[in-house]
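Budget justification note: compute hours in this period were largely spent on complex prediction jobs such as the one shown. Inputs:
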Amino acid sequence: MNNTIKFVQGNEACVEGALYAGIDFFAGYPITPSTEIMELLAARLPERGGKFIQMEDEIASMCAIIGASLTGRKAMTATSGPGFSLKQEAIGYACMTEIPCVIANVQRGGPSTGNPTHVSQGDVNQARWGTHGDHSIIALTASNHQDVFEMTVDAFNLAETYRTPVILLFDEAEGHMREKLVVPAEGELEVVSRLRTSLGRDVDYHPYLPREDGRLPMSDFGGEHRFNVTGLFHDMWGFPSNNPKVIRELLRHIVDKIENNVHEITRYKEHYMEGAEYVMVSYGSSARSAIHLAKARRARGEKIGVLELQSIWPFPVEMVREKCAGAKAVLVVEMNLGQVAAQVKAAVTEPERVFLANRIDGKLITPEDIKIYIRVIQGRGV
Amino acid sequence: MAVKDYLRQRFFPHMWCPGCGHGTILNSLIRAIEGLELKPHEIVMTSGIGCSARISGYVNVHSLHTMHGRALACATGVKLSRPHLKVLVPMGDGDALAIGGNHFIHAARRNIDLTAIVMNNRIYGMTGGQFSPLSGVGIKATTAPFTTIDNSFDVVELAKAAGASFVARSTAFHVKECKDILKKAIEHKGFSVVEILSQCPTHYGRKNKEGDAASMLEFQKKMTAKIGSKALQENPNLIARGIFVDLDKAEYCTEYEKIIDSVMKEKV
Amino acid sequence: MAKQKLKEIVINRDWCKGCGICIHFCPTKVLELDAKEKSVVVRPEDCICCRMCELRCPDLAIEVITDQDEGENNE
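Corresponding output:
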């Protein structure tokens, strides 16, 4: 099979990525600006024997994909702002029970109903700390449709690899913009299948006993092995426990399996970074403007580059520190009040050199906007 | 298979209080399962949070202890993914009809093949005795020190109106009837709702001067009557027991399979 | 079906929480609470094998075994 070239919305690129990754279950609830994802999957999933269900609310959608994933399906939901808030309890449940699933959050302006049809990147911290209690999470993002596709495939792969929910942090501009997408031929990108236990029926299977490599082979719920799944702290059979050792070890496990693998999980791109004196750290649709500006400035001989983050959580602290070392100034370009900027400041050795170039009015940040910030940092005024 | 083989006996004695009706419901439920000769690996039990929800841990089936109110939403994902499984969803009254009320009516509307068991003890027991949406007017609870002014739901009427294709009510006192109704509910193809009146002597009984577990069961006996019985005709204030709805109606997973079939045929 | 004859009422003392439901509703008063607040069989000869104690026991602690229960105890 050859590559297929399409001209699509970002939301459709996400759907193509999910299908490529082998999605077979989607549950959702209509919400702007992510609705196209569910509309498209409603049509595409049954074509391949997959299941689609429109649930009664955002909470139920998240719960349904948890149930589906547990039975061995690759499952996903999609939402935006307020819906993402509603899903948080169940996202925590998926963290605790180690159920792989993918949640696409096409960001819009918030808080509350906010600005449904306009762009924002205000959910970065909610993706990290939206659910209660200590935990870790993986969140990916993308600035163009090809990357939306690839990050969606990656999200399914990481969910399976680490038995954890993975958040796709897209935004309204990316979701609704149309551009070219090349759907790669089957086999061109890696697709991770679920790691299933090789133990037969009636063998004592431990759903929550990590192997030496930290991975936990699963058994399709409702299949060969009977076990318990609970959001309570639990032992290796999945039964509730308040033994301090069990609690500590489980919490360490669900955090460490992600935090100890930051290098494997980290995804980023460098644009015009060679010898860059000014580094713009950006992601999602903001990065498009940063890249555009860097390209123009490089043409004039200015040493300015873009470090584009494609994974935000776990935050790639070491990578960012290394890439920003030696820069005269680091400019974090994003559409919020500095949610990634705070992370960058914490990561680098000279936080006083980190500046925020942002826009929070529902309009896409432009190269012109960033230019003004740079002039101010350089002491040249506007 | 012997009845006790359906239990995870290593977790007994269970965590429920002395005289808790939930234990009796577990008793009736495993006898219903045994009566139907179901294999443990064919059964998924999905529960929420609360005293009731702990039932799933005691049964030697595939057990999914989810979040407060979310049992039916999670069960929907399980069932639609694996329609061949029998999915039983025991819930408490607050679990099913307060925090989970939306999922309850929509699962009924879809007529998805789940067996919802509402273990109705009219109180939040695990948190220490707050009133629930099934407490009704005039009862005492920690959050109703001057008695409740909140009306209660009628679970049967609610389930009927929402579209459930099997609706029944029994009690922890009427154990033989309860077992038979549960058997029919589990066998029924479509969304089935069984409300089972249960007793919480610890919180409800004590606060409302209903005495011990035995006298609370006497109350269930006295205050209920079979559908169509003379007692019910003579005293319409009694709570009716029995099967209220048993309809043959299009089931969600089956209907979805039809969509898959037709879409796939079209593609070929 | 011939009338059932009691062989034994087995009460699991570890599971019994002494709620008294079995005692209260036994039609022939076969059971009583002992000093440790556990249900015990005191008048087995009066048992009519209705099994209501077994079915109603919230602790699943009672098993009524009759002459009609074959080999393995079906109940």
